[in-house]
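Write out the bound-state structure for pyridoxal-5'-phosphate.
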Amino acid sequence: MWKLSLSELRLTDEDRAAVLEALDSNWLTMGPRTDAFEKAFAAALDAEAPPFAFAVSNCTVGLHMAFVALDIGPGDEVIVPSLTFIASANAALYTGATVVLGDVTSQDDLTLSIADVAAKITPRTRAVVPVHYAGQPCDMQALRDLCQARGVAIVEDVAHAPLADAAVDGQLQALGSIGELGCFSFFSNKNLATGEGGMVVTRDPRLADRLRLLRSHGMTTLTLDRHRGHASSYDVVELGFNYRIDELRAALGLSQLQRLPEVNRRRAEVWHAYRERLRVIDGLRLPFADRPSVGRTAHHILPVLLPEGCERALVQEAMKAAGVQTSIHYPPVHRFSFHGHSDRVIKDHLPITDAIADRLLTLPLSQHLSDADLDLVVSSLQAAVGHACSAAGGVR
Ligand SMILES: Cc1ncc(COP(=O)(O)O)c(C=O)c1O
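---
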């Protein structure tokens, strides 16, 4: 149906062979491939001092497990940007905690505003969730300094930004390994995609011990340990979950991890090529366009801000007619019925998020896009904006 869809997954022969090999091994739940995936992922984040890494069923449960490992619960507050996928907020709500929504930095920097976090921290704040939106790093230096001074934990939502860096204390550090905990997603549309899947990382050995237990029912041994004869029974030492991954996904993840740096590099090239082309559209704003990129980047999605006064639904319809899929990342958390009405979601003062929410539009982005593909997206967007913005009273 689409000439160009929002994201495009192309598996390789190596990916298929890795999954088949896992299937032929006759061991499907967590096993040696999961172990190898975790080790390789941790080393890809930091070869010299790899963090602890735990593969999980998806990023949402990874975030939940991270909050539980920090003993967050009723009466505690967790600051989460309103401009994120709903999972970042829901995972904190699962614990009984209150979510305090934070604003974005500016119309050019759609990551969590650290100044707003500073204004919203209270004695009840236990954690802040910087979402590295679109693959762009939050200001981790400022956030780390603020959170250290206030005794607040950082749980990074790295769903969009595997193998991207931020500069902290004069050194580039992998996103996800800077806060107390970092949670990655390997959902189908992600830069590394296993269908469902995720990874939780931490540098803290005590948190690592908690994560190991929480992932598998609080049990002291795994099925694999018992299969290998390393243990014959187990105790259950806390209320855990079944948040495990399986060998098929771990094998697929491990296979894709080898090419993730190249995938990210190519996505950056596509993003820059877009940036040049999008300049022709009057009034269109490309967030992050003037950010100097330091270190590794991830460029997961390509959100733009339509000119003020555009009828976004008309733009999307016109692009659909041209065969180009678009989306919205994201309807802000505070505008959903459930979260808008919940007294466990504090939604005060979100002026920038409110100013941009109706102008956000996400364009197709993948490492496979050609120059001709970009020309199609940009020309159809230009035509759609001309049409939908004159219908709404002209580009301002
Ligand atoms: C920013 C963000 N956080 C969390 C998630 C949840 O990830 P998962 O689907 O792996 O649970 C996503 C997934 O799209 C996301 O984009």
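---
Residues 176 and 182 are 4 Å apart (CA to CA).
The first helix runs from residue 13 to 24.
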